């Protein structure tokens, strides 16, 4: 048998409506190297595991299922799942795709491996299309960068923190191809990664500090918005949970300043300010967002958004109605 070059890690939990589309995109990859697909089912109760077993039988040379009897995420979080998958993974590279997302280009892996090899990169990512839960495509591409690039650490970290997204969600996890040796952490994970409650952002920060990052301005996967059992859907109507998450991201970024020797504090501090600004918005503390150190962020908001904030600032009862009736969390 050919030696495996890439292991694809796929995690699933109660994703029966989507998992076939996900697995179809993985098994259909056309490459000149061997790859393997690990699918972790975290004790699904909707029959997701049965579909994974079906693909194991159809593609025994490609697909291996890992089935939990008890939910692992509730006992150890994403870290426990990733640790288990890394122990089962082989090859030089790790690719990633959650069970509700899917790949759309059958040459995705080949294109990414080619540029990783050519640039000795730590991470390769690409453009991703957002789709609604029912599969309908949106016009939202992440990121909206239209040219390929290769950036070393000195350029990538400032770019990442100044791109304009307060949580650094510039790249989607379903686009990641990563060097496996960098993910083995023989001396333990850096502290900043332990402080975050999500997995994708710390990975980008960590890998960005380890070597070049390659971006391909090619739409090769789809990210499903607020699908059933997704993290984003569980956050949608829980303002307190959003605030806890943002507090953890601030702590993660503060520790990342130490990890990178304080070389990028200017850009990281600017990003932390954006998160703090959003937290004040979530709490309705509008007077503070118009003062330093947030004045420049406030001034950069679109006119319509600033006008809406001023209405709520002058008429606080509007915010109470907004929270009670619309219950919107993301995007204020």
Helix content: 40-55%
Distance N terminus to C terminus?
A: 53 Å
Please tell me how large the radius of gyration is.
Answer: 21 Å
The succession of helices and strands, N to C, reads: EHEHEHEEHEEEHEHHEHHHHHHH
Strand content: 15-25%
Mean pLDDT: 89
Backbone structural class: alpha/beta
Report on the biggest sheet. Answer: 10 strands, mixed
- How many domain units? 2
Uncertain runs with pLDDT below 50, 5 residues or more? none
Helix count, DSSP H or I runs of 4 or more residues: 14
C-alpha geometry: globular
Number of strands: 10
Task: Write a structural description.
With 332 residues, the chain is an alpha/beta fold. The protein has 2 domains: 1-100, Spore Coat Polysaccharide Biosynthesis Protein SpsA, Chain A; 101-283, no CATH class. Helix content is 45%, strand content 19%. The protein has 14 helices and 10 strands. It has helices spanning 19-27, 48-58, 73-88, 108-119, 153-162, 191-195, 200-208, 231-235, 239-259, 265-283, 286-289, 295-300, 303-314, 316-326; strands spanning 4-12, 34-41, 63-67, 93-98, 102-103, 123-131, 137-142, 149-151, 177-179, 213-224. Strands 1, 2, 3, 4, 5, 6, 7, 8, 9 and 10 form a 10-stranded mixed β-sheet that branches.
Can you describe this structure in just a few lines?
By secondary structure, the protein is an alpha/beta fold. Helices cover 45% and strands 19% of the residues.
């Amino acid at each position: 048998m050919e030696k495996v070059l890439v292991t694809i890690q796929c995690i699933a939990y109660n994703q029966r409506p989507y998992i076939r589309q996900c697995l179809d995109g993985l098994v259909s990859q056309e490459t000149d190297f061997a790859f393997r697909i690990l699918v972790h089912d975290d004790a699904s109760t909707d029959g997701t595991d049965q579909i994974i077993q079906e693909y194991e039988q159809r593609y025994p040379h490609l697909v291996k299922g890992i089935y939990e009897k008890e939910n692992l995420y509730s006992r150890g979080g994403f870290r426990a799942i990733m640790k288990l998958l890394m122990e089962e993974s082989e090859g030089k590279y790790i690719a990633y795709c959650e069970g509700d997302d899917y790949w759309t280009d059958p040459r995705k892996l080949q294109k990414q491996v080619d540029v990783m090899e050519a640039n000795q990169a730590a991470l390769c990512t690409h453009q991703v299309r957002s789709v609604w839960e029912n599969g309908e495509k949106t016009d939202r591409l992440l990121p909206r960068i239209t040219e390929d690039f290769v950036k070393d650490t000195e350029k990538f970290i400032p770019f990442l923190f100044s791109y304009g997204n307060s949580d650094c969600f510039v790249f989607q996890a379903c686009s990641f191809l990563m060097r496996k040796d960098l993910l083995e952490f023989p001396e333990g994970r850096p502290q900043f990664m332990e402080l975050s409650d999500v997995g994708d952002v710390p990975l980008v920060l960590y890998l960005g500090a380890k070597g070049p990052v390659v971006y391909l301005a090619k739409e090769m996967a789809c990210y499903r918005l607020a699908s059933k059992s997704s993290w984003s859907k569980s956050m949608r109507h829980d303002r307190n949970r959003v605030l806890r998450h943002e507090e953890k991201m601030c702590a993660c970024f503060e520790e990342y300043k130490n990890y990178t020797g304080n070389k990028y504090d200017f850009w990281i501090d600017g990003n932390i300010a954006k998160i703090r600004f959003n937290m004040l918005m979530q709490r309705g503390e509008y007077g503070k967002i118009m003062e330093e150190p947030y004045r420049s962020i406030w001034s950069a908001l679109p006119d319509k958004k600033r006008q809406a904030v001023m209405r709520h600032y002058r008429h606080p009862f509007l915010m109470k109605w907004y929270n009670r009736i619309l219950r919107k969390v993301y995007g204020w």
